Amino acid sequence: VSYxxxxxxxxxxxxxxVDAQIDASDISWDQSWSVVVTPNDGTQDGPxxxxxxxxxxxxxxxxxxxxxxxxxxxxxxxxCVVQSAxxxxxxxxxxxxxxxxxxxxxxSGATSTTTWPGDTVPGSNVMGADVWICTIEAExxxxxxxxxxxxxxxxxxxxxxxxxxGYGTVC
Length: 171
What we know:
Strand content: 35-45%
Order of helices and strands: EEEEEEEEEEE
Number of strands: 11
Helix content: under 10%
Mean pLDDT: 91
Strand order of the largest sheet: 2-1-3-4
Structural class: mainly beta
Number of helices: 0
Low-confidence stretches: 161-166
Largest sheet: 4 strands, antiparallel
C-alpha cells in the first residue's frame, strides 16, 4: 500500500508538499495546516482521511536578570538588568515587563526607563535595609515567559570613609 498526501496551508493547496511530513522550517505559529491522505493498493485508491492542526504560539524562554548596582546603597538608583535575553522559538520580537516589590509589597511608586519601561527605581525611594525584588517576564506579543526574580538588600550606611586629624597636643 502506498499513500499520497495533499497538504493545504490556511486553506490553500501546497503542491510542493507531497511527503508525509512538513519541514519544520516551513511552519510558523498561527498557521492552519491540513493534509488529505489517500491510500492506494496498486489497483485503486482507498478512502481518504483528513487531519488538520492549528500551529499555536510557543511562549518565550526566561531571561537571566540581575540588579545593579551590586552592592546597592541607600540612595542608589536600582536598575533591573536583562543579562541574557530570552529566546523566542517562533522568531517573534520580544519586550520585557518589569515589576518591583519592596519589603513584601508591590511597588507602585515612581520608576523610570533605562532600557525597558519601569526597569529603574529612583534612589530617592531606596532606603537602607529594604529588600527589593525585581520581576521580569519576556513577552512575544501573544504569550509571556515564566517570571524571573532578582533580589537585593540595601546597605544602610553607604561606603563611609573614616579619617582623623590631629590639631596639636593637649597638656
